[in-house]
Amino acid sequence: MQFREQIQIKATPEEIFEQYKNVAGWHEWDAEVKASSLEGHFVEGSSGVLVPQKGPKAAFKLTEVTTNKSFTSQAKLPLCVMAFIHTLEESEGGTMVTHSVEFSGLSSFIFSRLIGGPIRKSLPVTLEGLKVACE
Q1: How confident is the prediction along the chain (135 residues), in pLDDT tens digits per residue?
Q2: Which end of the chain has fewer CB atoms < 10 Å from its terminal CB, N or C?
């Protein structure tokens, strides 16, 4: 199951990607994040921890990083992987930003029902916060 939201931001992909790379600062534009940290550099294979406003802290791993274009972080749940996919596409007047959440694995149906709804509702708010931080 996948959820996806988009927003147009009047900023360059480079400016937006700087916000992504500053993992410790995610809480400044994402109201759902209480705290976050990354061990090492913002590159594929690096691991981090995210503490949401509600719920337990979660370990994540950067599974794809393409500078100024995209990144994907994954969190493992029992028999499920939850992926957060972020893409930047330069467009007239700025950048089209897409955030997607994808659940896969044997228990993906359960987790998409349990936590997918709140995540889906938070995506537009998160994107709006990113827009405010970048413009």
Answers
A1: 889 999 999 999 999 999 999 999 999 999 999 999 999 999 999 999 999 998 889 999 999 999 999 999 999 999 999 999 999 999 998 999 999 999 999 999 999 888 888 889 999 999 999 999 999
A2: C
pTM of the model: 0.93
A 10 A CB-CB count for 20 gives 20
* CB-CB contact of 33 with 52 (8 Å): yes
- Distance set, CA 23 to CA 77, 84, 94, 116 (Å): 21, 14, 23, 22
Task: Name the E strands within the chain.
Answer: 2-9, 33-39, 47-52, 58-66, 70-77, 80-91, 94-104
Two tokens, residue 118: 């709140």
CA distance 98 to 35: 22
What CA–CA distance (Å, rounded) separates 16 from 55?
27
